[in-house]
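User: Before I run my own analysis I want an independent prediction to cross-check against. Here's the chain; please return only the structure tokens and, at the end, one sentence I can use as a sanity check.
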Amino acid sequence: MSKKDGKYLTTGEFAKLCKVNKQTIFYYDQIGILSPVMKNEKGYRYYSIHQLELFFVIDLLKDLGMSLNDIQQYMQNKSPESFLSIMYRKKEEIVKKRQEIEMKEKMIEAKIAIMEEASHLNFNRITLQRLPEAILYLSRNIQNISDEGFLEVISDFINELQISQIDSGYPIGSITKREQVLKGEYANYSYLYIEQPNPKEGHPYFRAVKGDFLIGYHVGSEKTIGDTYKLMFSEMDRLGLTLGEHVFEEYIYDTVVRNDKEHYVTKIMMEVDRV
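Assistant: Structure tokens:
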């Protein structure tokens, strides 16, 4: 065979078309995954234009996480069946990665929306608002639970969010029942929750009762949150309201965006009834 007929490419020409350096092509020849179709008497390597497709497949498999060792094993035992098997497997991996990327994009969008909204809030105001029904994913019951049990529930809750890909990007909040709040047991939560704007089937959900909520913001550490609750109860009395069945808490600013606990902001949403 001769290069003069125009069908063959030097290593440099082939590497240029593949957009890699010559050393990569030499290495692929060395490990046996892409060898030249001919070598002349001076040892020069020549490649066929038809081998470009093979290089692009190798490059694709590398991009999809397949090791050179696995690629080498395939090259030593090529067949349409094994190639098809690899393609199906890689397609499944891409679909999974796409789903993960889409989920992360939604998480980012949610966090952007929360931060943008927070930048326009007056944390000194207590307001009465009518909230629409929200769908929440709940943890197991944590009321009166031990510290060890609490850690286990949190771990299970976070694991489920990750495994089932239902982390919506919204903050993890807490639900406290009326009785505990009236006793001043503000941290004796009943459940952890995360809002689910687009709930998946097959998971237990708690539909928060839509209605009137008194909403306030506690600035500072959780140790002084009782002061904000007292202010909210005073406003509740002034408006002629009574506490409903649940109180919801969510961090607006926490350790993600603040270094000092005194600058943390907790959103408190108290379900209320009109007297």
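Sanity check: The mean pLDDT is 92.
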